[in-house]
Structure formats: C-alpha cells, structure tokens
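Journal club prep — side note

Before the paper discussion, L.F. wants everyone to see what a predicted structure for a comparable chain looks like in token form. Sequence:
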Amino acid sequence: MRYASLALALITAGSIATLAQAQTGPAMKEDTGSTVNTQGAPGARVGTPANPTLAPAQRTRIKQYVTERQVRPITVRERLAVGATLPADVELLAVPSEWGPELAPYRYVYSGSDVFLIEPSSRRVVQVID
C-alpha cells in the first residue's frame, strides 16, 4: 500500500512538471538574435530580423552606393561594431530601396570606410559592411 502511494505521487509529480514545461509560451523563449521576434520580449527587436544576411554582390552594391553618392561619414568616439549602440545625436539615414526590400526596416551610417546597418528603435549596429 505504501509503495502504491509513493508510485502515484511520483507519477503525479512527473505529470505536473511535464504540463508546466508544455505551457511555456514563445514569449518565454530566449531571443537568440537569429530569427524574427514578434513577441516583444525585453531588449528584443520586434518584427525585424536580428542580423540580415547579405550576399557578396549586395555588399558590393551598398559600398558602391555610399562612395558614388559621397555619403558624408560620421565621427563617433566609440568604436563601432555589431552590437554597439549609436548615440542619440547621430543621424540615421534611410536605407535606399535599391539595397533590397529586406533592408527597408533598417537605417544606416557611414563611418571610416565601413557602412553600418542599424536597427532604428534600439540604435544598435546589426551589420558591418566593410
């Protein structure tokens, strides 16, 4: 009788743990930065890809655009790299349509000899085009 009660308690505890694990929704998942996050989790980009994938030809087209149009470079104190946040006083430029529709949600800046794609709501660098 004691063993039957113990077995029943173990089965019940296992079922509760499984049920609790199954109820974890998408908003509880970690934002790894590799997919589109539509849940609005803190610190996450809502509705924009975390890191756009650019083909070599597209990267070349972007660099040509910036140099041919003589886009004015910005100067910032901090070293710019993926994940860096741009200061509020830095003007973010709209991405031209010829760069491709997948880049429309982003903005960009030109600094040194590099183009930086920026996620506008967080002002974070998501791609460096060197």
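L.F.'s comment for the group: Helices lie at 2-22, 56-68. Keep this in mind when we get to the figures.
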